[in-house]
Amino acid sequence: MIYDRIKGIDKDWSRITLGCWQIAPSGGWGDICPANESEKVVHSALDHGITAFDTAEGYGDGESERRLGKALGSHKNSVIIISKIWPDAELTLKAYQKRLEDSLKALDREYVDLYLIHWPGSYFNTQNKSARLAEFMDSIRKSGKATTVGLSNFQSHDLTLLGNKLNKFSMNQVPYSLLDRAYEGKTLSLCKNADIPYMVFSPTAQGLLARPMNREDLEMPTRK
User: Does the residue 219 lie in any domain?
Assistant: First the structure.
């Protein structure tokens, strides 16, 4: 395994991160991991040198966080845990702090290493709203409940709305594969100029590119 160091996180970050969307009932391509198998998946990742685990409050309504926290056991403070908050219209710092506390309780941990805004959302379509969101996330970072904060699925127009608040964030997590190259071009340039690295998810399109397929596989509307 190859490891990197990411600005602000004093831990070795494995080049491969275990995505924990499907260790809980959440949907997506492929099979959902049964509860009795999710712990084995996490333990296997640890055995193979994986030190970073990605989850979110929205994955199975917190079930992914709960399963991950339980499976990590004594390893929970030595690894890197990434979680995410889904933005909504309740744009108050108190509301965001409460939702992070719920995630930490599910993970059985006092902090997360990286806390992401899951999607830009239609609620933050002005510079003023985006600036307030950035300040909230920075307050969470300063509280020590999140070592660093970042973005997920933010494209160029979303990044532009953040203006000079973009430097509050340490990462932009984006989908990238042979089937999804939407985050090249201007979005990538903006992140490079702001010294914000990409964290790529679904490089094999949730396994779609890593397994044989036949015509019947593509007849399901959600898979076309």
Answer: no
Active site residue 176: no
Catalytic annotation, pick one of 3, 59, 111, 115: 59
Residues with Cβ within 8 Å of 168's Cβ and at least 6 positions away in sequence, in order, are 134, 135, 137, 138, 141, 149, 162
Tell me the CATH number at 55.
3.20.20.100
The answer to whether residues 24 and 39 touch, using CB atoms and an 8 Å cutoff, is no
132 is in which domain, residue-wise? 3-209
Mean pLDDT of the chain: 88
The reply to whether 59 falls in a domain is yes
Answer yes or no: is 116 within a domain: yes
Quote the tokens at residue 13.
């970050």
pTM across the whole model? 0.89
The pLDDT tens digits of the residues spanning 150-197 come to: 999 999 999 999 999 999 999 999 988 888 888 888 999 999 999 999
Q: Structural domain tally of the chain? A: 1
